[in-house]
């Protein structure tokens, strides 16, 4: 039986099918090369945990994961011209600490989304943009196997020898920031110049913060699992200096999943950043 959720906002409340919920947003149609539509998603707990620190690596708390949230994640991914990931994820992937989520349609659960991309005029796979200050990461074999377009984004102060080595291997390197790290505004403008219209951030707090600070984020999807996780060392959604007015977001939709994860329930929320007046 298809999973169903309760739409709470905008009202009136109505029970709807989960499958197709994010596809209905048609994110691939909302941006242009001059103004790419940039969106991010997170899953967190009631106490704000999006990841727990485990030694040098961080991991998503298993108690806030669910098949329903993963389905919506895949629907968001399916609508992207390009996925922005980061070197830390690729290092964890190579070490076996995280699963590979850089492709669409390679699992039975998302074969329908591969067909959806084809029917909607998108490439077989989204391009992958790797944001990294150090440029110290392994290239995943999956992106080579699937013949995905790969670009590297870094800052102007990145190690010159590593920039040259990546370019020698045929990977374009985008300079998107005056320091070592990637900055939101320069990155989005560069991606727009390359023709990308829908950009999905598979990154973390640092990228979300720079996108908000530079006014580049178009939409935030947030799953809030009804669990208190705790933990001594953890990550939340944003990092760095206070965002002040750049951190204002307006709720545009809210759905209630009563049963998952683990019978506790969760909210699926969508937010639109408020631009300065």
UniProtKB/TrEMBL annotation:
Keywords: NADP, Oxidoreductase
Bacterial bifunctional deaminase-reductase C-terminal domain ranges (all copies): 36-247
NADP as UniProt keyword: yes
GO biological process, one term: riboflavin biosynthetic process
One MF term in the entry's GO annotations: 5-amino-6-(5-phosphoribosylamino)uracil reductase activity
Coiled-coil annotated spans: none
Pathway entry: Cofactor biosynthesis; riboflavin biosynthesis
Pfam family, one: RibD_C
Domain of life per record: Bacteria
Tagged with keyword Oxidoreductase: yes
PANTHER family: 2,5-DIAMINO-6-RIBOSYLAMINO-4(3H)-PYRIMIDINONE 5'-PHOSPHATE REDUCTASE, DIHYDROFOLATE REDUCTASE FAMILY PROTEIN (AFU_ORTHOLOGUE AFUA_8G06820)
Protein name per UniProt: Riboflavin biosynthesis protein RibD
């Amino acid at each position: 039986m298809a999973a169903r959720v309760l739409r709470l906002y905008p009202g009136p409340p109505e029970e709807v099918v989960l499958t197709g919920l994010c596809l209905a947003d048609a994110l691939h149609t909302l941006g242009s090369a001059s103004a790419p539509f940039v969106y991010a998603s997170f899953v967190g707990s009631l106490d704000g945990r999006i990841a727990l620190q485990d030694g040098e690596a961080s991991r998503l708390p298993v108690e806030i994961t669910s098949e329903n949230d993963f389905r919506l994640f895949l629907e968001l991914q399916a609508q992207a011209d390009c996925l922005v990931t980061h070197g830390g994820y690729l290092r964890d992937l190579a070490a076996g600490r995280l699963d590979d989520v850089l492709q669409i349609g390679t699992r039975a659960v998302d074969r329908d989304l591969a067909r959806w991309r084809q029917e909607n005029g998108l490439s077989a796979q989204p391009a992958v943009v790797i944001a990294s200050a150090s440029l110290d990461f392994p290239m995943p074999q999956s992106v080579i196997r699937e013949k995905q377009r790969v670009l590297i984004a870094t800052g102007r102060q990145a190690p010159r020898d590593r920039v040259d080595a990546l370019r020698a291997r045929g990977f374009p390197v985008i300079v998107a920031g005056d320091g070592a790290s990637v900055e939101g505004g320069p990155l989005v403008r560069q991606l727009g110049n390359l023709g990308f219209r829908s950009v999905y951030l598979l990154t973390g707090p640092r990228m979300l913060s720079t996108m908000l600070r530079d006014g580049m984020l178009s939409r935030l999807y947030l799953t809030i699992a009804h669990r208190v996780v705790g933990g001594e060392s953890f990550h939340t959604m944003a990092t760095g200096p206070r965002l002040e007015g750049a951190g204002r977001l307006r709720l545009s939709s809210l759905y209630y999943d009563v049963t998952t994860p683990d019978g506790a329930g969760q909210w699926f929320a969508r937010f639109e950043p408020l631009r300065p007046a």
